[in-house]
């Protein structure tokens, strides 16, 4: 894996690989790939920097079960201990781990692959030893060992890194508080029922989960109850939303009704009020009717003028003769009646 060297003000020259699409390599079981002369380094020399072809080989080992951010941060610290670091990570096998520490959640192959895909790791050493021997350190040309400074008692020893510390090859890293494999397992055990119900709901069988028949039925019933609660909660939320929309619509309708009512009242007052249009129209019509009633009717223009007697008041004009056989008006006096009869007889004689 070829790399380039860049300069960092805080950490000095750093190795950046041209690509991160490939996982870290596995270490060879028989020999070391390092071909450069491997003279022993002190911590001061390593911190000042080494040639490109002579990186400082740092070794960090562990179980790395349920690989988490605490593991990654420890490896990040180990990778950045020196300006030119080549990080080798040893992972113990299932056999050693079950013997000295206990059962693991992940298999050794799953743990190997998890470490290969960590960006800080350059090489993964499978089936790492539980205790580091001088022969092992020499075989893999390890300069320093990185681990947290807390004494690690195991395999009959108070601290398996005691001889590494005495040889001046130990470089401490800091643990990340609040996260560990044991803490994660504790959470799963504490909430076992929740995770068992969850996996049953996702299609796992009771046999795969090592759940008894009674517990399986209990978990499935609890899942149904939870689904019903969720449906009720959903209906309640929808009902609240519906009621809110109805209230909002009702408010809008009431507001529009009030606006229309004010508009209707205004139009009514404008038409029928004290100074409304209807009153003006009524007054105009009443005035015209009154003027018609009070003004006299004019006489026709084609009636002949009559001479007025100084002793008598003028009589109303007689209607014009429209046809020949019109009836004469009744006489107003006996003399007038005799005169009209004589005139009618004269007219009859003329027709004969």
Provide a descriptive summary of the structure in words.
The protein has eleven helices and eight strands. It is elongated, with a radius of gyration of 60 Å. The strands form two sheets. Strands 3-6-5-4-7-8 form a six-stranded parallel beta sheet. It has helices at residues 43-48, 69-79, 94-100, 108-116, 134-139, 162-166, 181-190, 192-201, 213-272, 277-294, 334-351; strands at 3-8, 12-17, 25-26, 56-62, 85-91, 123-126, 144-148, 170-173. 45% of the residues lie in helices and 12% in strands. Residues 1-18, 308-313, 321-326, 331-335 and 348-352 have low confidence and may be disordered. Helix 8 crosses helix 9. It has two domains: 25-179, Rossmann fold (3-Layer(aba) Sandwich), CATH 3.40.50; 182-276, no CATH class. The longest helix is centred in the last third of the chain and has 60 residues, at 213-272. Catalyzes the key rate-limiting step in the CDP-choline pathway for phosphatidylcholine biosynthesis.
């Amino acid at each position: 894996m070829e790399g380039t060297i860049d300069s960092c003000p805080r950490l000095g020259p750093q190795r950046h690989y041209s690509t991160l699409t490939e996982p870290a390599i596995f270490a060879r079981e028989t020999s070391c790939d390092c071909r450069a002369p491997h003279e022993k380094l002190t911590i001061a020399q390593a911190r000042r920097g080494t040639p490109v072809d002579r990186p400082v080989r740092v070794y960090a080992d562990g179980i790395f079960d349920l690989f988490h951010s605490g593991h990654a941060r420890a490896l990040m610290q180990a990778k950045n201990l020196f300006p030119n670091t080549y990080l080798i990570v040893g992972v113990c096998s299932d056999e050693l781990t079950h013997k000295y520490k206990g059962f693991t959640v992940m298999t050794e192959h799953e743990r190997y692959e998890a470490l290969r895909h960590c960006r800080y790791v350059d090489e993964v050493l499978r089936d790492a030893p539980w205790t580091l021997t001088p022969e092992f350190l020499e075989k893999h040309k390890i300069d320093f060992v990185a681990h947290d400074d807390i004494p690690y008692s195991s395999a009959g020893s108070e601290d398996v890194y005691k001889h590494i510390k005495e040889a001046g090859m130990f470089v401490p890293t800091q643990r990340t508080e609040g996260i560990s494999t044991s803490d994660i397992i504790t959470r799963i055990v504490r909430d076992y029922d929740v995770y068992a119900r969850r996996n049953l709901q996702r299609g796992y069988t009771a046999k795969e989960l090592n759940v008894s028949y009674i517990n399986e039925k209990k978990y499935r019933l609890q899942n149904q109850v939870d689904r019903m609660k969720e449906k009720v909660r959903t209906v309640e939320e929808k009902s609240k939303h519906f009621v809110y929309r109805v209230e909002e619509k009702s408010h809008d309708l009431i507001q529009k009704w009030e606006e229309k009512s004010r508009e209707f009242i205004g139009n009514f007052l404008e038409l029928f009020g004290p100074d409304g249009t209807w009153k003006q129209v009524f007054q105009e019509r009443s005035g015209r009717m009154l003027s018609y009633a009070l003004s006299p009717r004019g006489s026709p223009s084609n009636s002949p003028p009559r001479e007025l007697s100084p002793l008598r008041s003028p009589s109303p004009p007689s209607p014009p003769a429209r046809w020949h056989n019109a009836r004469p008006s009744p006489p107003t006096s006996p003399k007038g009646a005799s005169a009209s009869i004589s005139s009618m007889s004269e007219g009859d004689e003329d027709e004969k």
